Amino acid sequence: MSNQQWGGPPQGRPGPAPWQQGYPSGGFGQQGYAQPAYNPYGQPPPGYAPRGGPGFGGPQAPRRKGGGGLKLLLLALIVIASLSVLGFIGTGLGTDAQNSDTAYQNDDYRVPAPDKNPPPIPVPDTYEQAEQVINSSPFYGQSVPAPVRCDAEPINVGTASDTQLQQHLDASMECLVRVWEPPVTGAGLIIVRPSVTIYGAKMTTKCGTSGVNAFYCAADQQVYYSNRLDDELPIIAQDKWAADVVIAHEFGHALQARTGILISAKALGQNSNDEKTDLLYSRRLETQADCFSGMYIRSVSQSLGINQSDLAGIEDTYKAVGDDSVTGDSTVLGNHGLARSRVFWGDAGIGNAQISACNTFTAPANQVR
């Protein structure tokens, strides 16, 4: 990869621009169906004229002209909405819920309130630096503390009111920040607590308009969760930990944003000028968020009382959102990964404390298929 800066008005290949497509790159909408005008990449860069309209398909990678600064493409690349949740294995789970003798890690840390005006996302200056970030970020050298206390009680998402759902997800977000603060700051980076916005059938953000979904928007660094998500994915209401798995995955994308991994991977994918390569980068991002989510579940399992008996339902959640599960096509080349990949990387997270175990960017392509 060259040391050239990215930037300048991309010329693009024929076909819809990424922000014009209905492809649910990272959201909980069903793949294969027309989606509202949600832009998984944020606002288009200056000088890029959109072509075409909404439709199903992977994001097209616009060609890059030489020269120009990285900032020109930042708006086009800093957002990913997330669909998939993760796999799970039966190791590293706590069986002693809220034991008064437990020495919880990072318990003196005071979790901040949601930050509606967070600092800018770190952005590498060149494609070479982007490669370094996704492959060898100092974040990979950190470990996740365990056990960590979490006071978010499980709820029945199918019957919960918006107020109950909001309270639960806010409490889960507090737990997420408590778990991830040590490794993020240990890598010399800044952790941000996103807000969680509950919405109905449609939500318009700085990332565009999304239908029923759960997603992280890097344009404002906040998380959004539809109260109708269980209609699209019944497993959300059937399993008591499903909502926690979902929100942990979305926070995984927040971690990628704060470490520069997200913007680097999306830029490299677009710069490849190849749809299959772009989709591969997307799957590496999604399966990494799966792995991060698994690490979180491992960390809080003792506090929440997540036991072996919970594994079947949680694993069903992961499998339900594989690219093959949501399309019904076992051969699909999607942007999130097959159900088996969801399970594989969830397994990697739940069985490890070392963040390097979640480096999907150095994994064989068949492990993120």
Word description of this protein:
This protein is mostly helical and 369 residues long. It has a domain at 18-86 and 97-274. 37% of the residues lie in helices and 5% in strands. The protein has helices at 71-77, 127-136, 162-186, 229-232, 235-238, 242-259, 261-271, 275-304, 311-320, 323-327, 339-350; strands spanning 196-199, 203-205, 208-210, 214-217, 222-226. Strands 1-5-4 form a three-stranded mixed sheet, covered by helices on one side. A hairpin with a 4-residue loop joins β4 (214-217) and β5 (222-226). α6 packs across α8. It is globular, with a radius of gyration of 19 Å. The protein starts with 70 loop residues before the first helix and ends in a 19-residue tail after the last helix. The model is unreliable at 1-26 and 28-91 (pLDDT under 50). Its main location: membrane. Keywords: Membrane, Transmembrane, Transmembrane helix. It comes from Microlunatus antarcticus.
